Amino acid sequence: MDVSEPASISSGIAERYATAIFGISKESKSLAKLETNLNDLAQALDDSADLRALISSPVVTRDEQGAAMAAIGKKMKLVPEMQNGLGLMAEKRRLFVLPQLVAQLRAMIAEDKGEVSAEVTSAKALTKAQADKLAKTLKERVGKDVKINATVDESLIGGLVVKVGSKMIDTSIRSKLDSLQNSMKEVG
Fold first, then answer.
1. Contact by Cβ (8 Å): 138, 118
2. Would you state the pLDDT for residue 188?
3. DSSP states of 159-183 as a string?
4. What's the chain's Rg over C-alpha atoms?
5. pLDDT at 2 over 60
6. Which of these, 54, 59, 81, 93, could form a disulfide with 24 (CB 3.0-4.6 Å)?
């Protein structure tokens, strides 16, 4: 069995829902609010083990998932397009693709705005000045506005790992040490 098959099925499902939600949101001119909603939803998914369990548990019924998502949508003040999409996903038992849906919608909104996202991992949190300088440098290389999604991984020791689309630039000290260690193994 091909291991990538479940992942491609999930991303295909997420893409269909994302396309619908994006199209309706664009028509109703609520993309800016949808973008804020996506950031809030992503944060909620990161912070709440209960939410992750709710969307992936086969034990929770469709009705319970639907009621929970309606309550979350109301509490988070999600745009109607997103609330309706989440309700339909609950009804069809498709909430397990919510993380992929958020990623797909973010990418669609960024493309619509002429932006590209960069995943940046650093050993310490970037200052505003550092993030702005990095965004400017990346804009010169990519030719589009760059939105930086920064995370911290202290195991990098220093430097950055930057992913823009399919390209990755790894200037971390950890990768340099790993490279040095590999070359030492080849010698001795």
1. yes
2. 63
3. SEEEEETTEEEE--HHHHHHHHHHH
4. 20
5. no
6. 81
Mean pLDDT of the residues in the chain: 91
Give the pair of three-digit tokens for residue 79: 């745009």
Q: What angle do CA 167, 168, 173 make, to 5 degrees?
A: 165
The two three-digit tokens of residue 39, written as one number: 């950031």
- The encoded tokens of residue 155 equal 């195991």
- Strand partners for 148: 118
Strand arrangement of the beta sheet that strand 167-170 belongs to: 145-152, 115-122, 160-164, 167-170
Where is 117: in which H helix or E strand?
strand 115-122
Partners of residue 47 on adjacent β-strands:
none
Longest CA–CA span in the chain (Å) reads 65
Of the candidates 123, 68, 135, which has an alpha carbon nearest to the alpha carbon of residue 95?
68
Task: Specify the residue for token string 């490279």.
Answer: 179
* DSSP bridge pairs for 167: 164
DSSP readout, 139-152? HHHHSSEEEEEEEE
